[in-house]
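Researcher: Structure for this, please.
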Amino acid sequence: MTRPHPTAPSPAAEPSRAGRLTLFDLPLDTVTLDAALDLLGEWMFRAPRSPHTVVTLNPEYVVQARGRPDLVAAVQGADLVTADGVGIVWAARQLHGREVPRAPGYDLVRGLMARHGGELRVFFLGAKPGVAEQAAQNAAREYGIGVAGVHHGYFDLPEDQRVAELVGASGAHLVLTGMGGGRQETFNGYWRQVLGAPVILGCGGVIDVFAGTADLAPTWTRKLGVEFIWRVGLDRKRWNRAPRLAQFVQMVRAERRKR
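Model: Predicted structure, token format:
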């Protein structure tokens, strides 16, 4: 089931817009991790309170977006779109001749918690029942953050409004949605005004990592930007996602030949 996607309000001017690229109709901001953290902190604590959505773009999203106008609209309407992995960096180099820095979801979340600590109120929305609660407890213990609320990510479209209103009433500065690529982005984009938080970030499996129910990829894979390949190789549940990575490579090569 797809919903009509409202046009997102225009974001305030920010430094990343000057270097925004387009990959297969999807935007990509050429922003470093530190600059992204600065911008998100500005939105949360210094700018007038208004909702902003953040997408950490990876090859799987690009492939999924083909034939998914709702997902395309959600990414196009995002206020910040960062490069999550090496595949996006490679595609930007191939199609634009540009070196795009990475700002992965886990590093954004950890960086915001480390920077803002006790002044930051976070809503954990996603993963299986009980996982968000554990993630919130662990993050509060490690970083001293305030927990605005928790809710699992296993709910269907008819429950979206109820969950969005629950989040909106929490007063969170940061909402982490871990409901799987595509689902979390369309939810964030469609309900952004109801969610109301200054920063609404689709974080994939980050909630599971904070809860300890999923392992963080080794440091060397994160430095090289190949976490996705490492996870696919070790987790049979992810093997069905490997063809999307191959399809992404084919898309980039075909686009480059056309150019």
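Researcher: Any notable elements?
Model: The chain has one domain: 17-258. Residues 4-13 have pLDDT under 50 and may be disordered.
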